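User: Okay, second chain of the day. Same drill as before: sequence in, structure tokens out.
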Amino acid sequence: MTQPETLSFATETRQLLKLMIHSLYSNREIFLRELISNASDALDKLRFEGYSNASLMDDGGELRIEVACDPIAHTVTVRDNGLGMSRDEVIANIGTIAHSGTNEFLQALESGQAKDANLIGQFGVGFYSAFIVADRVTLTTRRADLAETEGVRWQSAGEGDYTLEPTSAPRGTEIVLHLRDDAQEFSDDYRLKSIIRTYSDHITFPVCMPAAAAPAEDGAENDTDSDSDADSEQPPAWDTVNQATALWAKPKTEISQEQYDSFYKQLAYDAQPPLALLHSRIEGGHDYTALLFVPAQAPFDLWDRERRHGVKLYVKRVFIMDDAAQLLPAYLRFARGVIDSDDLPLNVSREILQNNKVVDAIRSGCTRRMLSLLEEQARDEADKYARFWGLFGRVLKEGVVEDHANRDRIAALLRFASTRESEQTVSLADYVARMKDGQKAIYYLTADSQAAAAASPQLEVFRARGVEVLLLGDRIDEWLASSLPNFDGKPLQSAAQADLKLDDLGPADAEQPAVAEADWKPTLSVLQTALESKVESVRLSDRLTESPACLVASKDGISGNLERLLKSAGQDVPDSKRVLEINPHHPLLARLKAQADAEHVADWALLLYEQALLAEGGQLEEPAQFVQRLNRLLLEQ
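Assistant: Same drill. Structure tokens below.
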């Protein structure tokens, strides 16, 4: 008789099990959702592989999931007749968590998010949720495509190791959970049925539980007919607990909002209902159904553009893959849902998806419909759209850069803060509607943050003339602005550019006296000489009302914010000197003008430049010399 082999868990798996057993108690019933979901995946994979190898489907009966409990032995059993696993796959899939999100999952648990049990499903480690309610788990499995009938039994108490041993087993996987003392509630039929209907009602395979025994008729207990022994050996009858139908295939008129919400929660491992949904059946050149949801909370991997597990692809109700990134553009990667095509082949591969006219048509159609959904929400449900924008606005901005075909539609969905509105609620249409008479451009200012943009001295002339400026503080905003030359016929103009046509903005609230530029030529010359290595030129400013100086981009130069972004990304940035504008009405400049030949005039020039650099959020190249220079000037006073 072969002795069980004892193996050790990988380090990260031991950490995960420890945290899961001792930390996740707020919603323990989700263990059943996770195990049923895994079983459904195994059935999907078997059915898919069975189309090319029919022998895999032999001797397995109807594809289904069975759930049973034993209130005396205190166990819960989840069984499927799906693809199953080989011994090596058991070690790879259960002995080691080979998922890129494992470390993030562990960090999330350790950082106070332990009560959010939905993290389990998000990180793809659902099997281990069994240890939330079980102090011992036994898994028996056999892979469908193995010629021999031998399977493997895996068993662990969720501590440092597990055992493996060969065993005879039918095709598929059976998991037996030996419940903890404080989890006996889950050995009740009614409790398990309630959980299945709550979380797994729309699994497309039957989820069955043993049928309730029929009450005995009078005198049945005295029946000694010889058939009674044979009857007792008959397998128990099973009832299907879930609907076991593809929700997206039903007419919308037959689906309640509660059913949509339940399906979404099971699909996206989310405890909250979706923020919005799109359900469309498209017929014509290409036939497909799309059921897509906008989550009410951001997925954990939102900023990983390469990891998109939101849209499941089906062909004629047959599951194909769960990360079909080609079906929606990257800027809609927050969407979760199902797309079911009637036209794609069942043996479709990722390579086929990349160059396929049917996929291109599906992608284009779903993109248009998702944008229409957002447009309707922005128009009719402003509060909901504001919530959407707070969650996914920065992702949607990527569409302006990447999707030229839909650029104008996406631009209309953008929201910004401005010098008039501190919250990000201003649309470009709002801005255009309240432009001043004679104003020809949409003005914006980019910075490291919205607060930095709002504090910029470059806005002083716009405030003095009552002109609204959009405040752009996201990293992508530089690329967004450069990719959106105009909106509604109005060009977008950076407030940090040197050559602004300010006369079109009308008079300032308090006009400053005119300045004779000839009187300032000696001062400008001195400053230009002192800052020759720093700036392209020095000139008088008509944009400053309070600050002594500011830096602006030359006609063909890049902004200081873009330069900082490129450098932070490790890119080589060509030398691009900017223009230093000085405020001739500021007392500091008036004093400098009067002492243009003073001993420390070079120090004053550098201090003006460094002040302007700091005011826009830049960093000093030589902070120690800045401090020394400032101290010298202070001592002169």
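The chain has four domains: 5-211, 255-383, 420-495, 517-636.

User: Thanks, on to the next one.
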